[in-house]
Each structure stands twice: as C-alpha cells, then as structure tokens.
C-alpha cells in the first residue's frame, strides 16, 4: 500500500481540505463551483496532473424539483452534477466512494481525444481502481478484469466501458436504494424544501 501511495500518479494535492458535507451548505462546501480562485487552481492542476478529479464537481444549487427527481430514477441522479456530489457524499459514509470516483474517471477518459493523454489516464485508472494493490480497488468480476487486461495492451477511451457499466449497475442496485432512505438525502430534501417555502 505504501508503495502505491508514494506513486506520483496517486499523490493528493497538499493542504487541500475536502469539504465534509458537500452540497448541504451551498455557501461553503460547494464553493468550489463559485470560488473563482479555487476554480482557476483546479483547472491549472488539471493541465499539469492528469489524475486530478475534483473533490466536489462544479455545480449550481439544485432546485427542490431536481432534488425530488433524484428519487424517480438513478439515471436522473447520475446526470445531475449536484446529485452526483450528494450521492458521492453518501458513498463516502459507506466506504465505497471509489465507485463514484472510478465512474467519473471513466467519463473523463471517454471525453479524451489525445492518444498520449488516453494512455496516461488509462494507466492511472488501472493503478487507482483496478490494481489489486490499490486501496481504492473497485469490485469487478474476473471476466471484466480479463477484458481490461487485454485492452490495456493498447488502451483506448473505451478500455473500461464494461467495468464502468458493472460499477454503475452495482451503485444502482446496491447503494441507490439505501441513499434514498438515508439521513443525507432526507435532510437535504427537508432543508431545500424549507428554504423554498420561505422564499
């Protein structure tokens, strides 16, 4: 583990404190969306460190209708940056945040066009989420692992498609129902509905 943690591809930014309750206090914990200095720093880090995934996705404050819509389907939740932030916060309480981080990394890889960047990002995704040596290893079956190992010989933007679908399905079937019944989601629903009724 220590060897992996020392790897330059997994070094975390120093002295950056991750928000503890992203998307509950829109004035502070999601200030990464609106704080221009932090946004500039994040963009600069993306240009210099390929592994960077923001601690909190840039998003606007969701409407009460949007928050209620997350209970209608997992697809609606995952299409919403704010929804993904809240769901990710819930996954952190279940010690499975790596599932969302892996899914986001795959989305970023699929949007990449530069061959060199694809190779680098694919290697980092493998080291961070597929390798059995990684503390953030996601749960995949042997068939998918074999497919990934073959595809890693010549990585593409779709190297992890099967694995991403498997993790998406896992989050949908396993974590999503518990999320809807969680204090995190229910308190957000209550607070955003209350603030809406006051305005």
UniProtKB/TrEMBL annotation:
| Cross-referenced Pfam families | RGS (PF00615)
Highest rank taxon of the organism: Eukaryota
Looking at the record, the residues that make up the RGS domain are: 73-189
Task: Extract one GO cellular component term from the record.
Answer: cytoplasm
Q: Does the keyword Methyltransferase apply?
A: no
Q: Where are the transmembrane segments?
A: none
Q: GO BP, one example?
A: G protein-coupled receptor signaling pathway
Q: Where in the cell is it found?
A: Cytoplasm; Membrane; Nucleus
Keyword terms = Cytoplasm, Glycoprotein, Lipoprotein, Membrane, Nucleus, Palmitate, Signal transduction inhibitor, Ubl conjugation
Bilayer topology reads: Lipid-anchor
Instruction: Say yes or no: keyword Heme present.
Output: no
Function, in words: Inhibits signal transduction by increasing the GTPase activity of G protein alpha subunits thereby driving them into their inactive GDP-bound form. Binds selectively to G(z)-alpha and G(alpha)-i2 subunits, accelerates their GTPase activity and regulates their signaling activities. The G(z)-alpha activity is inhibited by the phosphorylation and palmitoylation of the G-protein. Negatively regulates mu-opioid receptor-mediated activation of the G-proteins.
The family database entries (PANTHER family) matched by this protein are listed as: REGULATOR OF G PROTEIN SIGNALING (PTHR10845), REGULATOR OF G-PROTEIN SIGNALING 19 (PTHR10845:SF145)
Subunit structure of this chain's protein:
Forms a complex with G(alpha)z/i2 subunits and mu-opioid receptors; the formation of this complex results in mu-opioid receptor desensitization. Interacts with OPRM1.
Q: Write the protein's name.
A: Regulator of G-protein signaling 20
Q: Which organism is it from?
A: Melopsittacus undulatus (Budgerigar)
**Taxonomic lineage per UniProt?**
Eukaryota, Metazoa, Chordata, Craniata, Vertebrata
Q: Gene name?
A: LOC115946147
């Amino acid at each position: 583990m220590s060897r992996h943690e020392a790897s330059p591809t997994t070094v975390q930014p120093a002295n950056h404190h991750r928000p503890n309750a992203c998307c509950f206090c829109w004035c502070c914990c999601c200030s990464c969306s609106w704080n221009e200095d932090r946004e500039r720093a994040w963009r600069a880090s993306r240009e210099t460190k390929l592994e960077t995934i923001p601690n909190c996705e840039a998003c606007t404050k969701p409407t009460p209708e949007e928050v209620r819509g997350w209970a209608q389907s997992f697809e609606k939740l995952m299409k919403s940056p704010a929804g993904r932030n809240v769901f990710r916060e819930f996954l952190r309480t279940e010690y499975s945040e790596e599932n969302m981080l892996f899914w986001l990394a795959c989305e970023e890889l699929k949007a990449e066009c530069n061959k060199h960047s694809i190779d680098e990002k694919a290697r980092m995704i493998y080291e961070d989420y597929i390798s059995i040596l990684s503390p953030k290893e996601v749960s995949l079956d042997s068939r998918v692992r074999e497919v990934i190992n073959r595809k890693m010989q010549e990585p593409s933007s779709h190297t992890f498609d099967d694995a991403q679908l498997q993790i998406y399905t896992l989050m949908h079937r396993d974590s999503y129902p518990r999320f809807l019944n969680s204090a995190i989601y229910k308190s957000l629903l209550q607070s955003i509905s209350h603030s809406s009724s006051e305005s």
